[in-house]
Amino acid sequence: MRTVGVVMNGVTGRMGHRQHLVRSVLAINAGGGVALSGGERVLLRPVLVGRNEGKLRDLAVQHDLADWTTDLDAALADPANEIYFDAQVTSARVGAVTRAMEAGKHVYAEKPIAESLEDAITLAKAARAAGVKNGVVQDKLFLPGLRKLQRLVEGGFFGRVLSVRGEFGYWVFEGDWQEAQRPSWNYRAADGGGIVLDMFPHWHYVLENLFGPVRAVTARAVTHVPRRWDEAGTPYDATADDAAYGIFELADGLVAQINSSWTTRVFRDELVEFQVDGTEGSAVAGLRRCRVQHRSMTPKPVWNPDLPATEPFRGQWQEVPDNAEFDNGFKVQWEMFVRHVLEDAPFPHDFASGVRGVQLAEAGLRSSAEGRRVALSPIDLGDA
Ligand SMILES: NC(=O)c1ccc[n+]([C@@H]2O[C@H](COP(=O)([O-])OP(=O)(O)OC[C@H]3O[C@@H](n4cnc5c(N)ncnc54)[C@H](O)[C@@H]3O)[C@@H](O)[C@H]2O)c1
Q1: Is residue 333 within 6 Å of ligand 1 at its C-beta?
Q2: Where are the transmembrane segments (predicted)?
Q3: Which CATH class is domain 141-319?
Q4: With CB atoms 3.0 to 4.6 Å apart as the test, which of 67, 134, 271, 343 could cross-link to 351 if both were Cys?
């Protein structure tokens, strides 16, 4: 049994605490550690890092952890800490990850890896120059619904994929008469907020991994709700986009159209759903479920607004079986990254792919600001 120190920055936040500390790192340890190919097991020793002593101490007590500090450089100076993980607010990411790489640590980070394409490229190049393993969280790929969708793609279910339509969103309360359920920095442009920067990196890796590289984007980003109330109940100007309507062009004429919104009310089965239409069949995948309709089972509705709907359209789809056990997606990716660090196992979710996610976000914002389609060109990060 081996133990690897993991410096975890931003663990007092929503993602850092719940998904990465509790559901990933601590869950991995509770399950006996990460299994390496030779049968060896690796436990992770989290070192909690943050700005607020009191919050860190409380968190350490809550989870019975010994190591916490407000001094990032001290945590990075300890050679037993081989991995640095960052789930801070996006605007704080580049500086801290850079320091970790300078200290020779392997680095794993939440998305987006930077606020701008220029910074993302600098970070990816620095990782290559330092020769450290690097990774970005791409959790949606590991959701049961998307894993089943991927299985359908790989099994040739769709024939030629024609289009993808995605709906993501829910109502995020303004914060006056009911507390907002997301942190206020998300709604301030100056603090790295905005739904394009938040969600387009997700859409990028989902589209790229399932359907191929994104070639161009046309987007309209808007701020539908310009005034919100923060964690202290103080009103502020919401300067960041809270909804984005995007069209993404892929190879062979495949068009993906994805709405992202914190200003919509849910009339769907899940908070995100993708409908994929192909020549041989269609699928609708959410976070957990995936349903299909084969061409042989496709009804032939006739447009007649004078009559009520004659067919139970939703009932004409079949549920795709799990056929596997799906663990927490964040945890699965953590295990992959640890294996990547310790035994060079494959890990395609590197900073180079994180760069392409930020590229799509930046192109989406430019498309919206300039009112035009923006083509994406390949990014050269130089030799490894
Ligand atoms: N993978 C996903 O599905 C997913 C979902 C939500 C957020 N995220 C990403 O995770 C990161 C954190 O998001 P969150 O929702 O957990 O945010 P959060 O506000 O809940 O947490 C932010 C963390 O950063 C720390 N921090 C460091 N510097 C800060 C500063 N200057 N101002 C404020 N906080 C600072 C906070 O103390 C806190 O620990 C973001 O980069 C976001 O894009 C990813």
Answers
A1: no
A2: none
A3: alpha beta
A4: 134
Q: Do domains 2-139+328-346 and 141-319 have the same CATH topology?
A: no
**pLDDT score at 20:** 98
What CATH number matches the domain at 2-139+328-346, 3.40.710.10, 3.40.50.720, 3.30.230.10, 3.90.226.10?
A: 3.40.50.720
The pLDDT assigned to 310 comes to: 84
Confidence grade of residue 345 (pLDDT, cut at 50, 70, 90)? very high
In the numeric block, which tokens belong to residue 3?
């133990």
Measured between alpha carbons, how far is 275 from 165 in angstroms, rounded to an integer?
Answer: 5
- Enumerate the domain spans of the chain: 2-139+328-346, 141-319
Do 194 and 240 form a contact (C-beta atoms < 8 A)?
yes
Ligand 1 midpoint to CA 9 (Å): 10
- DSSP letter for each residue of 302-338: ---TTS---S-GGGG-EEPP--S----HHHHHHHHHH
* Distance of CA 14 from the midpoint of ligand 1 (Å): 7
* Backbone phi and psi for residue 212, each to the nearest 5 degrees, phi listed first: 115, 170
**Which atom number of ligand 1 is nearest to the Cα of residue 185?**
19
Mind listing the pLDDT tens digit for each residue in 31-46?
999 999 999 999 999 9
